[in-house]
Each structure stands twice: as structure tokens, then as C-alpha cells.
Write a structure and sequence with these properties.
This protein is mostly helical and 122 residues long. It has one domain (5-116): Globin-like (Orthogonal Bundle), CATH 1.10.490.10. It is 59% helix and 0% strand. It has helices spanning 5-8, 11-26, 41-55, 67-70, 78-94, 99-110, 113-116. The chain is globular. It starts with a helix and ends in a 6-residue tail after the last helix. The protein binds protoporphyrin IX containing FE. Protoporphyrin IX containing FE binds next to helix 3, helix 4 and helix 5.
Length: 122
């Protein structure tokens, strides 16, 4: 990701605020809320905050479960991942993030699609 994304997002605090709103919307989304019925959303937000902070060039390092292992029991389809990426895009835009930075951050999640979807290969 290009330099300065972490700073432009407002560092850990700004990224945390985006992640909070992202998961509020995901858990209320008609297509995706069902996946989160039994989820510990606090843990998911913590994991996503670390993941995006690192991806944005911050000092954090994501040390959560590998993305494939974390979702091995979650029956996500490619369309679900794309829907989540669209929600993330809207959330970043609502936080006033520039188009280039929105593209860069959403690309990080979109790039993990194959690891997120249930394809039977843990
Ligand atoms: C690539 C970035 C992502 C990371 C780093 C990540 C991380 C995680 C982690 C660590 C867990 C396990 C949480 C726990 O042990 O309690 C998890 C579970 C889960 N993730 Fe993700 N996730 C990502 C993207 C997504 C996306 C795009 C979706 C789309 C809807 C998603 C949906 C879920 C769901 C439904 C669970 C299971 C919740 C449960 O029932 O416990 N994740 N994720």
C-alpha cells in the first residue's frame, strides 16, 4: 500500500472507528447478518483492526489465526466476500477517506477472497 495510508486513516484510532462501523453494518446487512449470529463481534473487530492497521503500514502486526483457518467453518461464497468489500468501501467513504486510499484498503480484503471462501481446502 502506498505510504501514509495509516496516517491518513487517522492511525489506529481512525482505523478502529472504521472497523466498528464496518461490523455494525455487516451484522445488520440482509445478505450477511446470518453469518454473524453466533459470532463474538468484539473479537472480530479486534482481529480486523490489527489486520488493517498492519496492511495500512502501521506498527501493528496481525497475529490472529491465518485467514483460511479462521474461516474454515464459515460457508462464505465469493459473492459474500464481494458484498463485505462493498460495505467496507461505503464505510471508508463515509469516513471521508480519499478514493485512492479506499481502493487500496478494499483491495487488501478483496485479495483474500480465495482464503475466505469455503472451497474445502483448509
Ligand atoms: C481478510 C480479513 C479478515 C480477517 C483478518 C478476519 C479474521 C477473522 C478471525 C480471526 C476470525 C475468528 C474469530 C474468533 O476466533 O472468534 C474470523 C471469523 C469470521 N469471519 Fe473473518 N476476517 C476477515 C474477513 C472476513 C470477511 C470479508 C468476512 C465476510 C463476511 C468475514 C466473516 C467472518 C465470520 C462470519 C466469522 C465467524 C464468526 C463466528 O461465528 O465466530 N471475515 N475472522
Amino acid at each position: 500500500m502506498s505510504d501514509g495510508v495509516y496516517e491518513r486513516l487517522g492511525g489506529r484510532k481512525g482505523i478502529r472507528a472504521v472497523v466498528n462501523d464496518f461490523y455494525e453494518t455487516l451484522t445488520e446487512d440482509d445478505e450477511l447478518s446470518g453469518f454473524f449470529e453466533d459470532a463474538d463481534v468484539g473479537r472480530l473487530k479486534d482481529a480486523q483492526t490489527e489486520f488493517l492497521c498492519e496492511a495500512a503500514g502501521g506498527p501493528e502486526s496481525y497475529d490472529g489465526e491465518a485467514v483460511r483457518e479462521a474461516h474454515v467453518d464459515v460457508p462464505l461464497e465469493p459473492s459474500d466476500v464481494r458484498r463485505a468489500v462493498a460495505v467496507l468501501r461505503e464505510t471508508l467513504e463515509s469516513h471521508g477517506v480519499s478514493e485512492d486510499d479506499v481502493d487500496a484498503v478494499t483491495a487488501v480484503i478483496a485479495a483474500r477472497e480465495r482464503e475466505l471462501v469455503a472451497d474445502g481446502t483448509p
